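The freezer alarm interrupted the setup, so I double-checked each line after restarting. Inputs confirmed:
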Amino acid sequence: MIAALRRAAALLSVSFLAAGCANFSAISPGDSAPAVEARVGAPGAVWKNADGSEVWEYPQGFYAVQTFMVAFDSDHVVREVRQVLNETYFSRIRPGMSREDVRRLIGKPREIWYFPARDEETWTWRYYDITYRFFNVLFDRTEGTVRTTLRLDEVFPPGRGRH
Amino acid sequence: MNATLFRAVLLLLCAAFTSGCAGFSAVNPGASARQLETLVGAPASVWKNADGSEVWEYPRGPLGVETYMVTLGPDGAVREVRQVLSDETISKLHDGMSRDQVRRLLGRPRDIGFSTLNDEEIWSWRYREWGVRNMELYVQFDRPTGSLKKISRFQVDTSDGKRQ
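Predicted 3D structure, all chains:
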């Protein structure tokens, strides 16, 4: 009785762990959509392309430093899996791009701030590159287009740092 | 002729520079309010204290990275001049402070923003640390209660992603 309970608890904690670090590296090109769902769950957003292909977006949460994009071909099999919160993708963001262009490239931001005086919308992502950093995309709010991007390192007062 | 022109340009440049940093180093304790105004102009805000003293606020924004607070005694004479956008002042911020308390410590923010996810108001300043590092300070207030919720400081990476 108690052993069964303990086993259930162990299984439960294992499933929590698996949910925490959903195994994107186990997804291979050629995998089916149901196989992807079985491994990493339903996506946070789905981006459909004109040719019938799709990109499934998986942000990993407010404090996470990774967002995964699973790209499917028009025949509904995985073409590739990419972790998009890094320079490879940030460097593709150019002034003039739309909110959707940015969203499709690097996924949902953790925060959006709005500064009325500058008519500016600031989208923020947390990422890891040597240290924990923040990537900001600044939009002209009315135009809905990128003005510029900004990379920031958080600085902590002595003794209050997070590592 | 050329030398005169050169000297004129030089003078003009000097004037541009000094107006940019409005000679706060020339304001000495004991100076009168009138002398202060002559040197650095009218303040953006004046804070009156219970003891009759006043604090005159001079934000050098929106592009500036300095804000000066000049304290005048009840006699109207300058007591001290402080540049407040520094680690020393920022370290005095703490959770629960009101907008007014923050304003009196750091002066007018460069910008005020709002979070779209939660009911927050964000005040931001730019400053320079050790005179070399470009920093951004964000102070987040809970909007309904108006109390300070979070302080974050960032060093701006100007390399545009091309570090190392």
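Quick read of the result. Chain A has two domains: 27-83, 84-163.
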